[in-house]
Design brief:
The protein is mainly α. It is 78% helix and 0% strand. It has one domain (2-300). It is globular. Keywords: Cell membrane, Membrane, Transmembrane, Transmembrane helix.
């Protein structure tokens, strides 16, 4: 019973983070399942089955708060489903040990860009409103879906920073669209796992409690992302991406850093991350105050009346 309660709490926290930042449900949940001895394929299958319900609830919640760009969902979700099915079907015969560090380096670069861009300059507005092309979203979805199925998580860590870095849609819509499209990915991955594993290796009680925790958290997360300022949200997402992928790199065979080096690195990143969020919060408040002053000055000047004195009409 304690294990089920713990899984329910993990499902709640993982979905709260995922729905607010566009990533981490699969990574968090799969990590716990692996820690208790579940084999990778069964752990990923369990998480993806739970995600069918949590992503549906999350998608509905984000839709109600107008956090979704449906064109993005269609362009990235369908290729993502194809990639997820392929990754789930061939997981037992594939190794991601070599690919994981390389992917982490790519994601770490994107995370650093997102953190610096949003912290130093706020929401990128130069491309805001421009469409995201299918030739960009299609391959991105295919890779993200494959990584998600083979790694037990990865749809958000791959998709969210890549779209955020483009600066073409607001962060809340990036997160809402990624969460909504993940429903297709979860269904495709689950079908693939049933083909590859059957159902005997899946504990459906674990699926149920992960699902319950996630469904409870979904509307709360959708509300949070609606009300968190984009600049602060971008800094927060960038920090999550950096911390997650640095952890993967330090523990990989490529680096294999000692425990004390890992701890020191995590602390340094945490300090920089906290300072970045604090700076973004300060700059957001300053910009908001400046906008308020400009609005008050505009009201004091009064409206411009056509045909005022001096008109020749």
């Amino acid at each position: 019973m304690r294990a089920l309660i713990l899984l329910g709490i993990v499902g709640f926290v993982a979905q709260l983070v995922d729905g607010s930042l566009g990533m981490a449900y699969g990574v968090t949940s799969t990590t716990l399942l692996l820690a208790v001895g579940t084999n990778p394929a069964a752990a990923s299958a369990t998480v993806h089955l739970a995600e069918i319900g949590t992503t549906l609830a999350s998608g509905i919640s984000h839709w109600r708060f107008d956090n979704i760009d449906w064109k993005v969902v269609a362009k990235i979700g369908i290729p993502g489903a194809v990639g997820a099915f392929a990754g789930a079907t061939f997981l037992s015969g594939l190794s991601t040990e070599v690919a994981a560090p390389i992917m982490s380096i790519i994601l770490l670069t994107l995370g650093a860009y997102v953190l610096i861009r949003f912290t130093a300059f706020g929401l990128p507005r130069g491309n805001l409103g421009k469409p995201l092309r299918k030739r960009f979203l299609g391959p991105l979805g295919l890779v993200a879906g494959f990584v998600d199925a083979t790694g037990g998580g990865g749809w958000g860590p791959v998709g969210t920073p890549a779209i955020l870095a483009s600066g073409r849609i607001p962060p809340r819509k990036v997160i809402g669209s990624i969460d909504a499209s993940e429903f297709l990915v979860a269904i495709a991955a689950s079908i693939g796992f049933f083909f590859g594993l059957g159902s005997e290796n899946i504990d459906f009680a674990w699926v149920a409690v992960l699902l319950l925790g996630g469904v409870i958290a979904a509307p709360i997360a959708a509300w949070l992302v609606r009300h968190i300022p984009p600049r602060i949200l971008g800094s927060a997402v960038g920090g999550v991406i950096i911390l997650t992928n640095v952890r993967t790199l330090l523990r990989s065979d490529m680096v294999n850093a000692p425990g004390n080096v890992q701890t020191a690195t995590y602390l340094a990143i945490a300090v920089i991350w906290a300072a970045s969020i604090a700076y973004s919060l300060r700059e957001y408040r300053r910009d908001r105050d400046n906008e308020s002053v400009e609005a008050i000055e505009g009201l004091e000047r009064g409206p411009v009346v056509e045909g005022a004195a001096g008109s020749t009409r």
